[in-house]
Amino acid sequence: MVTIKDVAKASGYSISTVSYALNDSGNIPQATKDKIWSVAKKLKYYPNAAARNLKNQNTMNIGFFVSGFSGPVYHKIYDGIATGLEGSDYNLVVSFSKNAKKMITERQIDAAIILCPKVEDKVIKIAQNLGIPTILLDRLNPGGDFVYSHVLNSYEGGRIATEYLVSQGRKKIAYLSGILGSHENEQRFLGYQEVLKEHGLPQMVYFGDFTESSGAAIVEKLEGVPPFDGIFCANDEMAIGMINAFKNYGITIPKDLNIIGFDDVDVSKYINGGLSTVGVLHENWGIHVAKDMLSILKGDAVETQQIVGVKLIKRNT
Length: 317
What we know:
It contains 12 helices and 12 strands. By secondary structure, the chain is of the alpha/beta class. Strand 6, helix 9 (183-199) and strand 7 (205-207) form a beta-alpha-beta unit.
């Protein structure tokens, strides 16, 4: 039976260094970790619970890691993934993203689906080293084996939303940003910027966090007097927060200003006669993700990065 001492001897590092590297703890350079993992894989040595699970070959669990369970987008994607796995022998295990590292390292799952921009690249690297297939949702593929991604065409969505506001005759168009650093937010903002540049219009940017309350907070800071006549919100929840808050100040939408969101969550149909938005078929997306993962687990070829389309949904804002 291969032990950690064998890995240390073969790699030329001390047992403590090998232990830190394989458990992703301590201040170990990435190059050193990669070398140690390479040796460990060649020797078929895995840390902690990994060795025990390897004896049973598979856990038949697919992990779905998210930053929280409250958002409408999460629920739709979850429903789609669960539907896509029906009839298979796999269980869908849902957990907070903070648990991803432990569950992957200990091989509590056979595959991972990650819907959270905060999961660090080093966690994805651990999954790659262990040969655990991982699909990233709305996050660019960092490259390498066993990692795949499904990315919303947020850039095109940003263009579509901004062009809609321009088509309504708006000249002072703002953007309400979501969490900084997220791929989808950056791409939506880029689409917004490009359209304004093409039309010779100025930019105006506000910052939220994808929650309804952050949209309402911007209105409160403005004391109900918007310096813009149109605003593209990076998601529907922030747009809904703005609409409800503006109503308290007597602002009529779309007469006084236009607001457009992104996602087409269910409740958007009932806000202010219907929120104009950029639509994503989240449940269908989830089904597609599940089918891709089942194909990967069977050893079938799957595209490593796929673009998910979006469309304009005109309503009453």
